[in-house]
Q: What sequence folds into this?
């Protein structure tokens, strides 16, 4: 090897040792530019592919949720009560109740309930009674229990009262408030409660 060739080889080696870039680049790395990060190309491509798949999956899941009626993220338990009562009516124990704030005598209250496809409230159980007592508060409300002269107490739906709670007093029409079920003269002006079976 002559001295001229030797000089070129040494000179190129010196340049490499001083940190100058080699003109050959690795196939796995992007070319280094001042102020940028050197990221391996396969990793960058994998990141983009992964993020794209993640976005597509999230979109598919959210669209699927809206296209599957009846399937909810939070399904309702099968034994949950679902009210089928119309607006202003309160659903409880398969009945719908409507509490009136206007007043009237027992017969006018019963007629108002008939116009709505209901009767004055028929109370079949202690649960119903306690629910209504809490709902109406201290105010007296007509319920569908009446005694015609010389007859027994009957509910407004025609069923005979079986004395499952005590009725004191000597009047013919029953009312309910938060503390009792009692009776008054039917011509008194009270609020009232209508009831009908839920659908």
A:
């Amino acid at each position: 090897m002559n001295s001229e060739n030797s000089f070129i080889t040494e000179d190129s080696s010196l340049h490499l040792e001083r940190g100058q870039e080699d003109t050959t680049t690795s196939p796995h790395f992007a070319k280094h530019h001042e102020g940028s990060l050197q990221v391996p190309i396969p990793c960058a491509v994998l990141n983009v592919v992964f993020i794209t798949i993640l976005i597509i999956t999230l979109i598919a899941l959210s669209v699927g949720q809206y296209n599957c009626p009846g399937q909810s993220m939070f399904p309702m338990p099968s034994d949950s009560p679902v009210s089928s009562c119309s607006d202003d009516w309160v659903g409880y124990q398969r009945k719908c109740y409507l509490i009136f704030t206007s007043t009237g005598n027992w017969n006018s209250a019963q007629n108002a309930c008939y116009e709505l496809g209901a009767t004055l409230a028929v109370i079949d159980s202690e649960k119903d009674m306690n629910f209504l007592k809490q709902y109406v508060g201290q105010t007296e409300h007509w319920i569908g229990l009446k005694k015609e002269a010389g007859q027994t107490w009957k509910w407004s739906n025609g069923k005979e009262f079986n004395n499952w709670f005590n009725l004191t007093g000597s009047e013919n029409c029953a009312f309910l408030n938060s503390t009792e079920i009692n009776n008054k003269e039917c011509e008194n002006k009270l609020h009232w409660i209508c009831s009908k079976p839920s659908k």
Notes: The first helix runs from residue 3 to 17.
